[in-house]
What we know:
The structure is a single chain. By secondary structure, the protein is an alpha/beta fold. It is built from eight helices and twelve strands. The strands form three sheets. A five-stranded parallel beta sheet has the order 2-1-3-4-5, with helices on both faces. The chain has a four-stranded antiparallel beta sheet with strand order 6-7-8-9, with helices on one face. Helix 2 (33-42) packs parallel to helix 3 (59-68). The longest helix has 14 residues, at 105-118. It starts with a strand and ends in a 5-residue tail after the last strand.
Amino acid sequence: xxxxxxxxxxxxxxxxxxxxxxxxxxxxxxxxxxxxxxxxxxxxxxxxxxxxxxxxxxxxxxxxxxxxxxxxxxxxxxxxxxxxxxxxxxxxxxxxxxxxxxxxxxxxxxxxxxxxxxxxxxxxxxxxxxxxxxxxxxxxxxxxxxxxxxxxxxxxxxxxxxxxxxxxxxxxxxxxxxxxxxxxxxxxxxxxxxxxxxxxxxxxxxxxxxxxxxxxxxxxxxxxx
Length: 225
Ligand code: CA
């Protein structure tokens, strides 16, 4: 089992290397994001331990770049700040798991072993319906093969629609799966976002992908390019 540790704090990196080697792993260390990306691209690892704050290329970007190359090596991100934002972003850019610094070595090893058991095989498939294609792992969305930039919320709504093609999805369902549980505003915020989406994916293509089903919600309709 070979592990890549991408960490610029020299002491932490060598502590991790020694500790993981004692656990029987083969360990490579990269001291910056660029080198980490290069090593993860050239060699095959069973897992990558990736710090976020790194010189040259930060951990989010290393992770996003690997996923963009369809490299699904299990990635455990080390988050330094104690913000949930960090962790959400780590998972958003394609990390499989995260650990908040400072962490205990035993917990790190447990997380790594769990990740490696799960392996690199279980990735969300690309969703497509007619002229629409959404890649949940890369967070990419295209209409007629043309990339369309969606905000994270717009992306979640499209993902929900595309996982239920042809079904009526209610505003409440959209709100519950695409907004934070702490959101206590008006359910009509959904309408606002549907309008944004229509401006991006319907108006420029003169198509009606998102149909309003009066009193029930919305339905995604298939169009061919
Ligand atoms: Ca760092």
